[in-house]
Amino acid sequence: MKHVPLVLLLIALAGCGTGGSTSTDQSPADAEPSAGVAGSGVSSSLPPSKSPEDLAAAYKAAFERGDKAAIEQMVYWEGIPADHRDWTLRAVFNIRFADGVHGKILTAEVVDPEAVYLNSDAYPLPASKMLSGSWTGDGGGGDLRIPIGEINGQYYFCARKPAR
């Protein structure tokens, strides 16, 4: 049991590097975003975000009301395997704390992306901005560092491809 925190840290870091790439048949500029996770069974109507700030505000509202389906729709899923989506929602978007209306966004601002997100082939949708801030929930809390990209005038969170 003493190795569990180390294993969890290594799993999280494996999804946060800049290595590894897979190819898709469509470029992000030509692709239509795919929203939702297979088997979620819930669909909410989410208006498109016309700015990174609109996306950040929508995420904050969805997180605080525990609306997993809305958060799923905010993510650009093209090129992300279905079996990696649930992990992404839990580890990156902190769904486990938002689910059931137990989470609160303490701070959130849209900033220029950190260097690790720029020109990275790990993201099917290139980052142009980033949501930075902090959150809290039952038994947890942490920092927000979620890349944001734009496609066809709409803004989405960038999901990272699984490390290979």
How many strands appear in the DSSP assignment?
5
The unreliable regions are: 1-44
Mean pLDDT: 72
User: What name does the CATH topology carry?
Assistant: Nuclear Transport Factor 2, Chain: A
Tally of alpha and pi helices: 5
The proportion of residues in beta strands is: 15-25%
Structural class: alpha+beta
Query: What is the annotated CATH architecture?
Result: Roll
Oligomer: single chain
List SSEs in N-to-C order.
HHHEHHEEEE
Compile the SSE list and pairings.
Blueprint: H1 4-14, H2 52-65, H3 68-73, E1 75-76, H4 82-91, H5 95-98, E2 104-111, E3 129-137, E4 140-151, E5 154-158
Parallel strand pairs: 1-5
Antiparallel strand pairs: 2-3, 3-4, 4-5
What would your notes on this structure say?
The protein has 164 residues and is an alpha+beta fold. It has a single domain (4-18, 47-158), classed as Nuclear Transport Factor 2, Chain: A (Roll). It has helices at 4-14, 52-65, 68-73, 82-91, 95-98, and strands at 75-76, 104-111, 129-137, 140-151, 154-158. A five-stranded mixed beta sheet has the order 1-5-4-3-2. It is globular, with a radius of gyration of 15 Å.
Task: Give a quick summary of the entry.
The protein has 164 residues and is α+β, with helices and mostly antiparallel strands. Helix content is 27%, strand content 22%.
